[in-house]
């Protein structure tokens, strides 16, 4: 049994993967869409990357058989960290318009280095939560920035499901090594029409963290809604390709 663990990004939830669950099952995979700590509600203690990655890693350790991680948007930071923790348990990592960042680098730092004038993407529309520790995406901004290539009704419905996000569980930087995360095969699904993780940033991450195979979708930040069939087919083909060769290629790219 081959498992696909689906990790959402900021302001979202397991629901963002609803459209791909059936097609993944039909393709022979067992999908697991997880809700992450720090999205929706939180307590008095901040949630960190260790907490979020630990939540996913704990689920992975309950599974028998190959496990692929799929991280959307900021979920890319989480799957990177899980692969660093459990490199021998992870068959491969997929980034869907995801943050495949160098170790120690946050997405804001990457954008600054590229000379992208802040605020980038959705940032200009964010509103603080009442406690000042989180942010909220107004639905009209979510529809226009995240889901603009989906059917209008689907875009509005998805934007209305976005939840508050704790900032400590969003503004994160991975910490990884070539000897662990660097040996895990990777696929990068780039979205050319993305308005929040700009294509120039996606390609800079591919350059800075080399070794990923790349497929290109002419779609927005959420191909789960706007290009579901193409997304699932790309994941399926890559996951079923020769895994020993993928791991060898990843190791060669990561190690000096």
**CATH class categorisation:** Alpha Beta
Straight-line distance between termini: 34 Å
Structural class, from secondary structure content?
Answer: alpha/beta
Instruction: Characterize the biggest β-sheet.
Output: 6 strands, parallel
Q: Which outline best applies?
A: globular
Write down the domain tally. 1
Could you name the ranges where pLDDT drops below 50 across 5 or more consecutive residues? none
Task: List the topology elements.
Layout: E1 2-7, H1 18-26, E2 29-34, H2 49-60, E3 67-72, H3 75-85, E4 90-96, H4 107-113, E5 127-128, E6 134-136, H5 139-145, H6 152-160, E7 165-166, E8 186-191, H7 199-208, E9 213-217, H8 223-226, H9 228-239, H10 243-254
Parallel strand pairs: 1-2, 1-3, 3-4, 4-8, 8-9
Antiparallel strand pairs: 5-6, 6-7
Helix pairs in contact: 1-9, 2-3, 5-6
Keywords: Hydrolase
GO molecular function, one term: hydrolase activity
Protein name: Alpha/beta fold hydrolase
Report on this model:
It comes from Rhodococcus aetherivorans. It is a single chain. This protein is 36% helix and 17% strand. The protein is an alpha/beta fold. It has one domain: Alpha/Beta hydrolase fold, catalytic domain (Rossmann fold, 3-Layer(aba) Sandwich), CATH 3.40.50.1820. The chain has a six-stranded parallel beta sheet, sandwiched between helices. A three-stranded antiparallel beta sheet has the order 5-6-7, with no helix packed on it. Helix 2 (49-60) packs across helix 3 and helix 5 packs across helix 6 (152-160). The longest helix has 12 residues, at 49-60. The model has no long low-confidence stretch (mean pLDDT 95).
